């Protein structure tokens, strides 16, 4: 009887434990290819939705209106842009600064693992990372930061401050982030 009670208690504890995201990161060749395709399609969607608008470093565009569906962030490493979708609707596009050749941003499909409105880097001299959304176990994150118009980070995806704040308000833990060439 005591063993049965212990087994039931253990089963209850497991059932009440918060579930971890089903997918933390996927960096397989297939995932990298899917993310690259998503980045290419996002660029086409940008032209359809926002016209031929070219964004300068630090700029972003955000559609008015309400959109439903799960948020997905697509990062285009080649064009240094971030695309926010709600369901299948492109909602916003922003300039970014990603990792350099010596400190590359990982490619593939990731999920938001942690969020913090103001975080400081443990690795890089306590550097501020406002509106931090971490996507891997090594500290790579989306966050507000310096945008010189080219890759310049240690692997993170830097965003304009206001865009980072708005994005932070839209996403939850487990949100999908696709990073492709």
Write up this protein:
The chain has three helices and eleven strands; from the N terminus they run H-E-H-E-E-E-E-E-E-E-E-E-H-E. The chain has helices spanning 2-16, 29-50, 161-170; strands at 25-26, 60-62, 71-76, 81-86, 89-95, 108-111, 114-120, 128-134, 141-144, 157-159, 176-180. The strands form two sheets. A seven-stranded mixed sheet has the order 1-6-11-3-4-5-2. A four-stranded mixed sheet has the order 7-8-9-10, covered by helices on one side.
Task: Label the structural class.
Answer: alpha+beta
Distance between the termini: 59 Å
Rg from alpha-carbon coordinates:
18 Å
Mean pLDDT metric = 87
Whole-number tally of structural domains: 1
State the oligomer. single chain
**Number of E-state strands:** 11
Helical residues, percent: 25-40%
Name of the CATH architecture: Beta Barrel
Strand order of the largest sheet: 1-6-11-3-4-5-2
Q: Which strand-content bin applies to the residues? A: 25-35%
Biggest β-sheet strands, sense, barrel: 7 strands, mixed
> If you consult CATH, what is the topology?
L,D-transpeptidase catalytic domain-like
| Low-confidence segments | 1-22
> Which term fits the overall shape?
globular
Number of helices: 3
Write the H/E string, N to C.
Answer: HEHEEEEEEEEEHE
**CATH level 1 class label:** Mainly Beta
CATH homology superfamily:
L,D-transpeptidase catalytic domain-like
Entry keywords:
7-stranded mixed sheet; single chain; 181 residues; 4-stranded mixed sheet; alpha+beta; L,D-transpeptidase catalytic domain-like
